[in-house]
Every structure is written in C-alpha cells, then in structure tokens.
C-alpha cells in the first residue's frame, strides 16, 4: 500500500477578490513540500468564494415578503434568508431554526451553504462559488502553468450528513480526477465479486484534508501526496440525480 501524506500549506495570506489562488498556493508550497505531478491540492470553499467576489454584505440585501415570513419562523436575519432563497432551487426541510435547501448546484445543505465564519467583519457572509468545478479547473490550470505539475484539485466545504451527528468536509468542486473509486466487478481476498462498492474518493480526500486544515488555524489549502488520482470528473457527479432521489 502506498504511503499517503497530507501536508498543510502554511502562509496563504488573507485572500481578497481578484487574488490568483494558483499563485498563492504555489508560493505557500515553496520548495518544501513543493507541488508535484500526481498531487491532490485541496482548497477550502471560503478562499475560492473570496477570490471570486462571492462575499456579500447583508446591508446590501433587501428581504422579500417570503424572506420576512421565514425569518420569523427560523429566527434568522431576514436578509440572510433572502440570500438563502436566492441561492436555492427549493427548501427541502424547514423546522424551527433549521433551514435545509437544495442549492442551484444541486447540493442539499443548511442555509444554501452560506456562512459567516472566516469572512471578516460582522455583517459579511460568503456564498458558495457559482461553479465550483470550474473553480477547481481554473486553479488546476494555474498550477500547471506555474509549476508544470499535473495535479488534481478539490474544492471543499463542510456539510452535515443525513441520519448522523456532526459535520465533515466534502468535495463541491473537482478537477483532474474521477470523484469515485469503482471496485464493482473486482473480487475481494475471498473471491467474492464486488457489486456495489463505489467509493466517493473525492469526499474522502476532502474529509482527510480537514484533519490538517481545521476551522480556526487559518490554513485554507493542503497537498495530499501518495494517492492515485486519475481521470477527469466533476463534483456534480456526486449529486444524486432527481430521478434517483428517493426523498424528493
């Protein structure tokens, strides 16, 4: 079995709109660990949203009547509710203060993925990137142009999980790798043929990277080395299509 290393990239400064994330990641990697072909570069959603101008001041949001109504039921700021509605296809579940929505990307998560942590002064919130797969692809291209390294890139965010307590990081953007490891048709050591063993390896790598990124350490990127990341895929493939959604 190969040795897998997860290396935090320290020294990424506070990201602002228009910043070149590939350049910042390359500078943070430096000579050690550097970036090598075959690496998986994991980047948090927050710095992608900052670089892409997806930070919004609630002072600039005018809530609709529907947002005002839901704000009373959820005890949320009506301006935040308006943003949640504008970033969502539908409300999946609303009970008390909980508001679970399906985002325009197809992700099912709390508050359409809108978050106020690690953003800046009170009143600022971050929206998810408009196209996280395209964001991952742009970072991948930028790293290749600067270093010559052929890497995979995963953009991560923190989601809750149905029927389980706690949160974990998942892949919301993928470039340069297949999001799944498919073992269907292979046999286990006892000769049993695997029929349903398709692992969401992009989500597994996103969760593993969180072990060195943390929520308060100010480390928004990491390199995972020793994983065979091959093919071309997208995080969109991780979303169950509507026709197979048993809970819709």
Can you lay out the helices and strands and say which pair or pack?
Layout: E1 5-8, H1 21-29, E2 40-44, H2 45-51, E3 55-57, H3 65-74, H4 78-86, E4 88-95, E5 98-103, E6 108-110, E7 124-126, H5 132-147, E8 152-161, E9 164-175, E10 181-182, E11 198-199, H6 201-213, E12 221-225
Parallel strand pairs: 2-8
Antiparallel strand pairs: 1-12, 2-12, 3-7, 4-5, 5-6, 8-9, 10-11
What is the typical, i.e. mean, pLDDT?
A: 91
What is the N-to-C order of secondary-structure elements (H for helix, E for strand)?
Answer: EHEHEHHEEEEHEEEEHE
List low-pLDDT spans. none
Structural class: alpha+beta
Which overall shape is indicated by the principal axes computed on the Cα atoms? globular
Sheet having the most strands: 5 strands, mixed
What is the helix content? 25-40%
Q: Beta-sheet strand percentage?
A: 25-35%
As laid out across the biggest beta sheet, the strand order is 1-12-2-8-9
Number of strands: 12
End-to-end separation in angstroms reads 40 Å
| Backbone CA Rg | 19 Å
Number of helices: 6
Oligomer: single chain
Question: What's the quick description here?
Answer:
By secondary structure, this protein is an alpha+beta fold. The chain is built from 6 helices and 12 strands. The model has no long low-confidence stretch (mean pLDDT 91).
Which properties best describe this structure?
248 residues, alpha+beta, 3-stranded antiparallel beta sheet, 12 strands, 26% helix, globular
Structure explained in plain terms:
It is a single chain. By secondary structure, the chain is of the alpha+beta class. 26% of the residues lie in helices and 25% in strands. The chain is built from six helices and twelve strands. The protein has helices spanning 21-29, 45-51, 65-74, 78-86, 132-147, 201-213; strands at 5-8, 40-44, 55-57, 88-95, 98-103, 108-110, 124-126, 152-161, 164-175, 181-182, 198-199, 221-225. The strands form four sheets. A five-stranded mixed sheet has the order 1-12-2-8-9. Strands 4-5-6 form a three-stranded antiparallel sheet. Strands 3-7 form a two-stranded antiparallel sheet. A hairpin with a 4-residue loop joins strand 5 (98-103) and strand 6 (108-110). The radius of gyration is 19 Å and the shape is globular. The relative contact order is 0.20. The model has no long low-confidence stretch (mean pLDDT 91).
């Amino acid at each position: 079995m190969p040795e897998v290393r997860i290396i935090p990239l320290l020294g990424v400064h506070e990201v602002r709109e228009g910043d070149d994330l590939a350049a910042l990641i390359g500078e943070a990697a430096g000579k050690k660990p550097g970036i090598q072909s075959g690496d998986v570069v994991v980047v948090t959603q927050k710095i992608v949203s900052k670089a892409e101008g997806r930070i919004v001041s609630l002072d600039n949001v005018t809530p609709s009547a529907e947002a005002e109504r839901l704000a009373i039921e959820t005890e949320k700021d009506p301006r935040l509710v308006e943003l949640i509605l504008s970033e969502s296809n539908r409300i999946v579940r609303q009970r008390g203060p909980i508001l679970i929505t399906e985002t325009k990307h197809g992700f099912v998560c709390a508050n359409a993925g809108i978050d106020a942590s690690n953003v800046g002064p009170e009143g600022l919130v971050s929206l998810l990137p408009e196209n996280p797969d395209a964001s991952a692809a742009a970072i991948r291209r930028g790293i290749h142009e600067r270093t010559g390294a052929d890497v995979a890139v995963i953009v991560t965010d923190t989601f809750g999980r149905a029927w389980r307590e706690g949160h974990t990081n998942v892949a919301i953007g993928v470039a340069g790798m297949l999001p799944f490891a498919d073992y269907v048709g292979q046999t286990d050591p006892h000769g049993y043929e695997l029929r349903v063993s398709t692992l969401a390896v992009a989500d597994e790598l996103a969760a593993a990277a969180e072990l060195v990124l943390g929520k308060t350490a100010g480390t928004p990127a990491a390199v995972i080395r020793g994983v065979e990341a091959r093919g071309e895929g997208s995080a969109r493939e991780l979303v169950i299509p509507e026709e197979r959604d048993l809970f819709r």
